[in-house]
User: Fold these one by one.
Assistant:
Number 1:
Amino acid sequence: MSYQLPKFRHPELPVNDLGYTRADYEGAISTLCAGCGHDSISGAIVRACHELSIEPHKIAKLSGIGCSSKAPTYFLGNSHGFNSVHGRMPSVVTGAALANRDLLYMGVSGDGDTASIGMGQFTHVARRNLNMVYIVMNNGCYGLTKGQDSATADRGSASKKGDPNIYSAIDLCGTALQMGATFVARSFSGDKEQLVPLIKAAISHRGFALIDIVSPCVTFNNNTKSTKSYEFVREHAEATGTIDFVPMHSEITTEYQPGHAHEVTMHDGSSIRLYKMDESLNPFDRRSAVNVLEEHRYSGNILTGLIYMNLDSRDLHEVLETSQRPLNSLDESDLCPGNKMLLNINASLR
Amino acid sequence: MKRIESVNDFVIKFANVNGTGSASANNLFAKALFRMGLPVSPKNIFPSNIQGLPTWYEVRVNEKGYLGRRGGIDIALSVNPQSMAQDIGEVLPGGYFIYDNTKLLDIRLHRDDISIIGVPLTRICNEQYDDPRQRQLFKNVIYVGALAALLDMDFKVLTGLVEDQFKGKKNLVLPNIHALELGYQYARNNLDCPIGIRVQKSDKVGDKILLDGNTALGLGALYGGATVAAWYPITPSTSVVDAFEKYAKRVRIDPGTGQRNYAIVQAEDELSAIGMAIGASWNGARSFTATSGPGVSLMSEFLGLAYFAEIPTVLFNVQRAGPSTGMPTRTQQADILSCAYASHGDTKQVLLFPSTPRECFDFGALSFDLAERLQTPIILMTDLDLGMNDNMSEPLSWDDERKYDRGKVLTAEQLEAGVEFGRYLDVDGDAICYRTYPGTHPTKGAFFTRGTSRNEYAIYTEKGEEYEANMLRLLRKWDTINEYVPAPIIVDCGMETDTAVLYFGTSEEASREALDHLSAEGVHLNAMRVRAFPFNQEVQEFIERHKQVFVIEQNRDAQLRTLLMAEFEFGPDKLKSVLCFDGTPISARNIRKQIKKHLNSDNVLPLHRDTALLRAGETS
């Protein structure tokens, strides 16, 4: 186990608006297997946060248990991290986000952590529309316990052990849509050009943003009969389109027209530019997203890219009407009604 | 037949059907007595059901101020034919059975040794009201009116209460007073009033209040500065969060913006509820969850995380009868062990044992200070009896000068100044380390919170010696905790004795009464009320001082006794159990009986030590 990065960096590493280099967003050296998809995702998170010029300490990264949930150690070393309990990251993030609405909450989970033990919490955090980025590093297997099938493994897909999976797969994007998630995307750890802008868009989205990222397990699930292998995903991925993230703060609004490039303004004033490839998908219409997902499931291809986004979503803080001041910054003078009220309460109880 | 005759000292039990609005009428009765200056202790005995099953409301009136269950029923008031056979059977010889004689009593239920009094409640209602719902609701008020006459209560107190209760709603005040009068006049005109039991004004209440423990806890959380409450509905804890919300809506909403200085989330289950509480506390907000036994089982994994990762956590456990779903609407103190050692691995959790609503309020607010100061879960152990029943209590009060103790948290300034930060580094020697909130400083103070082993700088480790050092520090922290938790309350009987009783929580009132009776019989016992785990040094010394200690608790397996034996290595002979686990609050008669049985069988006669020694000498 090594936990110190080599100190050497190129002397002219580019700095962002805050003056930070990408190194300021990196974490400890990964102890995951060489070639693990998760490390590419960590790299994409580092790049997205650096390019968006988010102060590293204004991000909190939280995870559950598993290979995926170890990953937050390997990015954003200047951010607080919380490696919690298996399948329970959503509840911990919910509490944390309620305590301080001013931080960016990045939840990192895996397919076992989300689709099995944590399915309940995953669905409920989606329906509450908690303002967070929920990243699933989805490899279809339990890596840390040596490769058992997970609930996202496709029926018939076989891991290194060779036995085809006999159960039907849970599609996390479809589930999230059903539960009311307001930003749903799928990507592939091997496609950084797609992944980085998606992460940026998810960060800018106000509300629950899921990115289900197929991230092959090189040790247990990267063989020829697996549908979560690098090769299979490269051959079967069909992108909804490409996406550019434009961190501008001028107002841009454009009507959505299929077949063209579109710019869509996000809550924080930045915008995303969509280049659509799949004419049948309108990513601002939930029914359309559900249909396209279902069609791809039927054809056996993997739909990647932005699948759905609701620009008018109200996040949990808005729904609960909580104070704009973070709750963790309030003190006695804000919170304690004092003895006078107790005198009245006592009087009413006699 | 010798009638029970008494003034200001009796037990009355109302037998109703749940879902018929009887609770508010019964409350009216109890509160009227309270306003007459009489100590009362009302207890709801209700089914796990919404409508149609038998429910009882037992009120003890006692001028001496004994508030525990006495045992035995002097007056039964029955408006539920379903439970009538049981209800009439429970009345003590010489007692009174008041029932709705619109339909005459089944001759097979008749008893010669009690007074049977009929009030035609249904007939009066049918004559007075056309609306079926009104007939049902006012029937309850009418019997309260009849009772007022039978017990010689001050009728003005009742009407005054109705006016207070429906302040500003004239359309409700008059019909209720009318119904009270219907019952009152019927009894006056047709029955011998008063019966052998009656009440008169007294001055034994002082400035006390009548309040349920759950409301007091909700207020404690409000005053203690809780901003995040996450919970999952479960009887008997639900009303804790209800109360928190009720008062938060009054005082925590900004009148200008309408924004709330609190957030309440009803979680999908108890796992999630405590996860949210832990997440909020980790991020620097005061947060809590409330639950009961089954919830504690589900929360155990997270409690282990909070213990090991040292995250402040406040959990209010309103205990009910287990195991499993058990008797969900009956009381017990049966989660002592599952909470004290909650979660896998070596864990020890801090427990607080309030015994009155006032202590629910005080300990409730204190929990947040303790959790943040000690960086560990604080589990406040109350129960259904205290939580859901109105208990007579000292009034609530708050010192307006009081500041919250936020514990050891490093600020951005301290970090900037170069203070060495290791999340699990014992800088002060009290085994409590400094923490940082997320977002404090751009480059200093970030760390990784985890349930895995780690070194003093929060870096993952599997080195045995580093793991062990951390576990031993947590044990040293336990000693520090000992200095912060509420000390026991010791009551010296003032006589020389080597025997004592030990009790906690809701066993206090019944124990106090039992000791008074035993004392009158010449058996003098010292007493100690334990108020927290870890047990204070005083607890150990007290037990060591005595040859034998009766441990009174409301569970089958003598859980607190087990805990005492585990923590102090007392032998089983030293600690004798006095137990009640039938789901009803423990009664003074029960305690007295069990203690006397122990004393007789052990040949221990505390006051007559010389005789006992002499006898032992004779046989040897």
Number 2:
Amino acid sequence: MRVEQIAVFLENKSGRLAEITAILADNDINIRALSVADTADFGILRLIVNDVEKAKSILQDGGFTVGKTDVLAVEVVDKTGGLAKVLKCLHSAGINVEYMYAFVNKSGENAVLIFRFEKMDEAIEVLSKDGFTLLSGEQICAL
Amino acid sequence: MTVIYWEEEIETLPRVGLESIQLRRLKHLVARVYKTVKPYRRKMDEAGVKPEDIQSLDDLRKLPFTAKEDLRNNYPFGLFTVPMEEVVRVHASSGTTGKPTVVGYTSKDIDTWAGIMARALCCAGATKEDMVQNAYGYGLFTGGLGAHYGIERLGATVIPVSGGNSKRQINIMKDFRSTVLLSTPSYALNLADAMDSMDIAPASLSLRVGIFGAEPWSENMREEVEKKLNLKAVDIYGLSEVMGPGVAQECLLADKGMHIFEDHFLPEIIDPDSGEVLPPGEQGELVFTTLTKEAFPIIRYRTKDISRLIYDQCECGRTLVRMEKVTGRTDDMLIIRGVNVFPSQVEHVLMGIEGVEPHYQIVVEREGNLDTMSVQVEVSEGLFSDEIRVLENLTKKIQADVKSLLGVTCKVKLVEPKTIQRSEGKAQRVIDNRKI
């Protein structure tokens, strides 16, 4: 139940994000979720898109450094404490979160949490056992 | 103004006398080196020149040059002329591919060097009454210890404070009443800034003379440092392959050039491309032959420093030729805070890090008074990670490796692919934005 995410290296220069989103738009790539992690000197743009391979190759053609990573998408009810429950479950199993971001789906009922773990397989096991819903890439795109 | 000499007779000797000393020493040196050092003998044999062919100073040009590469090829002690039990000290400077350049000294060499350095200090106006703050780095670098022995020989008081820790330097300066400062010129300016932030007026200190070297500096910098530190600033020249600090020294009267202590170091100016010796007064690459060193003499060493020799009589009375301030280099060597840096060394570090295809650029700036070096590295896919931590560790690793190989702290900046400009497909490795 892994989801493929692409990550793009960004120097902290104005207009770079605009350039990437324009390339994606021109090629009919739909962004389902994104986050930007930044330091003083550079940033990493992480994207969940409807066509990972295409997005990767057009961005590479555009001169960007692109990587592909597996992440997990956990669906929770969009209510107070939703994220806290997931994190509590992970914490008690001793699983560290490398990074995470989240979005709320269109209906507004559920929230989707995107996680990157060092121990991906263990995380899948623990979350499944505790009854959390893991979404596939297709499911995210269908939301 | 009374001029003080350390060895008046030799420093003011008419040139005919000086040249006869030089020739006698040169003949002796060439014969000794030919007999004792295989690489020299091989090169001389290849060039078809024998020690007995040296009959005049002009015959020097018959001898092959020695380059930094020769030192590297014979690393570490292959060019020493004496057995190691006679060597009492070694110094080393960074080499172009990670291997340092090693030089050695017999106890007589240390003694000679101390004398030459005392002469240099005297030439700069220092006396035994002085309190000399030696802020050159102590260690493998020749600067600290080289100057140290000369200060002691002069009979002045040496404060072996070494480089760094500006606040402590200034407190010492204030409390010990230092009168002479030895450091790189950029560090001197840095001290001036530190004084300012500590609210200490330079006029309240006792500094009188600053002897600055180990990196290129301009007349503008001289004016600035003189004004800011309230002292007279003079230039000193040296390099470890020839001896260390004290090869040449500016006197208090001269405003064009440093007196080369020619009875020990024989200078030539050559065309860096053809290797031909240029007529007196022309600008070219400076070449040195040592005349008195025992453990590690060197014949026609190509310094790669661009300078000019001035034979006019100096007002100070010294008959020793002067070399103009070094105005540039014939290679791509950079001097960052007194440390020699070759771009190939940085490349060597990057090659050692997995995933880095070295598309890099070195950018050198002068921020305030200190040189800063930053290395920009293009992030390839092999290097890239979606985790900040991984990329930050990469920059730290490059920084640590550069520091450990070169002894220079640099900033590392990761940049996007193809952002480093390439001219005709080849990246420009160095951008030097310093205005010296």
